[in-house]
Amino acid sequence: PAARQADGKLPGGDLRQRALEQLEQALHADVPELLRADETAPCHREVLDADCLRALESHPTAKSFCDFVDRPEEVQWLMEHPLVSRLSAALRAEGFPSVVLSLSGGVDSMAHLALLWAARRAAGASFQLAALHITYPGRGREECWMARACSRLGVPLYVYRLGLQRPRKGAPTGLTHSEYDDATLRARFRMYERVAAQVGAGTGGGGGGGGGP
Question: InterPro entries of this UniProt entry (predicted)?
């Protein structure tokens, strides 16, 4: 990154002006990228919770998050789970044409990924599904294994790399903490809308078999 001056400015421009320009770019021009899984790239499993890693390593059959799709008895167990039936019924009642799942790579969002994958099957694929991962400067190690999981489930995964820097003590970015939180919230929801529009228009893609959020 460019060196900051003592007054908090970047050479050639004001930090705040730059941050506002990045926000305008996100709100009015940027679109998320459809991410394809690279089966040859090393995945950083340390992004997983330690309890998840231990459970995966001790599982009698699983080698990755999503390989349950290859074992019919495990797919059947998931399809019969009460959460799946309740979620499927709720989605049918709402009549959503598309669902975009905010995917962080953590245990909660990945569990939602599996549940929505099953709910879509239970609902006869009556709605389109996609996942959106928004990454921030200094992050991005989760992308590889999320892409593989989504690919196996047939879920189009979109990624948007937000350029706004989080303000930290001694490292001004031109925005206050509250302004940063508001800006990133607006940008996130704009990206959800854009993914939903792409998926609803039939332009979303994905690998593997099945469906997913």
Answer: Rossmann-like_a/b/a_fold
